[in-house]
Design a protein that fits this description.
Length: 132
């Protein structure tokens, strides 16, 4: 017996820093995955520059990271709401969200990765569970 289908939103903010990709799929988590909707939301130059400054910094202080992390999270919440608002009312249900956040540093040879993004805040904003 297969698992019941879930409607999941996946979010990605890639290293290109061009914006947020958001996709809604229906999946049983094992063998089926049906795409339902997808959009990209471009970052404006000012936000992209703030994000890039954190990526360039070796170890940015928390007081520089926190406001960008919050804005990144709020932008992801907006992207999800905007995607869903473009769907018929009966198709807007979401069971969970997958949130990668944004990678500031990734050095797999050292076993090191640093992501920003506040999954708890995103769950609060969207009213659904967020895996992050």
């Amino acid at each position: 017996m297969s698992a019941p289908a879930l409607r999941a939103v996946g979010l990605m903010s890639g290293t290109s820093m061009d914006g947020i990709d958001v996709a809604l799929v229906e999946t049983d988590g094992e063998s089926t995955c049906r795409p339902l909707a997808a959009r990209t939301f471009a970052y404006d130059d000012a936000f992209r520059n703030r994000l890039a400054a954190l990526v360039r910094a070796r170890t940015p202080p928390p007081e520089r990271v926190r406001p960008v992390e919050r804005e990144l999270t709020e932008r992801h919440a907006h992207a999800v709401r905007a995607l869903l608002s473009g769907l018929p009312a009966g198709q807007r249900r979401v069971d969970l969200v997958g949130f990668h956040g944004h990678t500031l540093r990734h050095r797999p040879e050292r076993g090191e990765t640093v992501q920003i993004g506040d999954g708890r805040l995103l769950a609060e904003r969207l009213g659904v569970p967020v895996v992050f």
